[in-house]
Amino acid sequence: MSFFKIKVPFGLILWGIFNNHCKMPHFPKLLVVKIGSNVLTNPEGKPDLARMESIARQVAELKAKGIKIVLVSSGAVAFGRKEIQLHEKTEAVLKKQIWASVGQVELIHTYKTLFAQHHLAVSQILVTKEDFRDRRHYLNMRNCILGLLQQGIIPIVNENDTVAITELMFTDNDELASLTSSMINADSLVILSNVDGIYEGPPSEPNSKLIPIIGSRLEDIGQFISPVKSSFGRGGMLTKSSMARKAADLGIRVWIANGKRDNILLDIWEEKAPSTFFEPKSSKHSPKKWLAHGDQYFKGEVTVNDGARLALFSEKISSLLPVGIIQVKGEFSKGDIILILDEKGKKLGLGKAEYASSLIQERIGLKNQKPFIHYDYLYLIQNA
């Protein structure tokens, strides 16, 4: 079980909440639901079919209200572990690949059976990090998911653990859920875990209070979160909080809630469920949503001078010009994602390169050149 240890007064959190006059929203139009491994498994790590049946019923009820829903579901390895017994000496990565390969079939078959009881069809989409790097591939994937939704089909997204290797793996499915929400311009994201949300102390302690709302103006609280990971998942509350905040910064409403609670999805919209809600900022354009997660996928780096840094963060809309660049690292092509740093090495933002690395190297510091990163394809990190 993961939790977060608050080292600042709870009143400060409340100031961040109520100073923004946050109001809880009602039903969404396009919803992504992330279902964690600890939700789909029992304490022994075996699939919890009763819980899956409950979630399928709730999703069906939400769809009946006209809500389009995408599931980001863990659980393949747990299903595979149930089906196949492997020798203890089997190499760890190979063991996971085998379980994921076998288990994904069982996982999607179970979902298909459960949703068929509600006369709903499902589809399977397996992805790796590489699928999000290329803008064209990214858009093709988005169009596929939106096409499925238009046909009333429930897309079920999961990481392709069979082929993913360490450097191409998502932190966990929380990251994948945040990426998917951004990609399809979802207005809401629910992250189902095995706790009610984010606490000001260990959830197991009676005096620990659940934080109901985290305001958009509140500064980063990652330093107060315990890095402890969950029993069967790959990530912990630190990842969930980080991905929830990133999605909220892009204008997506996010809840972290307990998927083990009966009727949790329906109760969230009725404002009856305990949870932590992340207040969203204003929505960003689609290219900027793609770039917001690019800190995991960038192909090169550029360092800019103080003049360029000030221009980028001024109220005037500004693109990044070669005249403001003082250093370029890495080999990249036009269209690749680039990390932008200041002279002290601090991350300022991400953007889509308009030049290949060989060409921008020739134009470093030159005036009267077309933008290296156009404003429309520039994402700036807040508080940078």
Automatic annotation (TrEMBL):
How is this protein named in the record? Glutamate 5-kinase
GO terms under biological process: L-proline biosynthetic process
The family database entries (Gene3D superfamilies) matched by this protein are listed as:
Acetylglutamate kinase-like, PUA domain
- Domain named PUA: residues: 300-373
> What keywords would UniProt list here?
Amino-acid biosynthesis, ATP-binding, Cytoplasm, Kinase, Nucleotide-binding, Proline biosynthesis, Transferase
Write out the similarity annotation: Belongs to the glutamate 5-kinase family.
Q: What does this protein do?
A: Catalyzes the transfer of a phosphate group to glutamate to form L-glutamate 5-phosphate.
Q: Where does ATP bind?
A: 34
Question: Key word Coiled coil present in the record?
Answer: no
Task: State which Enzyme Commission number(s) the record gives.
Answer: 2.7.2.11
> Where is substrate annotated to bind?
74, 161, 173
Gene field: proB
Q: Pfam families in the record, alphabetically? A: AA_kinase, PUA
GO-annotated molecular function: ATP binding; glutamate 5-kinase activity; RNA binding
Q: Which GO terms describe its cellular component?
A: cytosol
CDD domains the UniProt entry points to = AAK_G5K_ProB (cd04242), PUA_G5K (cd21157)
SUPFAM superfamilies, per the entry: Carbamate kinase-like (SSF53633), PUA domain-like (SSF88697)
Q: Which organism is it from?
A: Mariniradius saccharolyticus AK6
Does the record bear Disulfide bond in its keywords?
no
**Annotated localization:** Cytoplasm
**InterPro entries membership:** AceGlu_kinase-like_sf, Asp/Glu/Uridylate_kinase, G5K_ProB, Glu/AcGlu_kinase, Glu_5kinase, Glu_5kinase/COase_Synthase, PUA, PUA-like_sf
Write down the chemical reaction(s) this protein catalyses: L-glutamate + ATP = L-glutamyl 5-phosphate + ADP
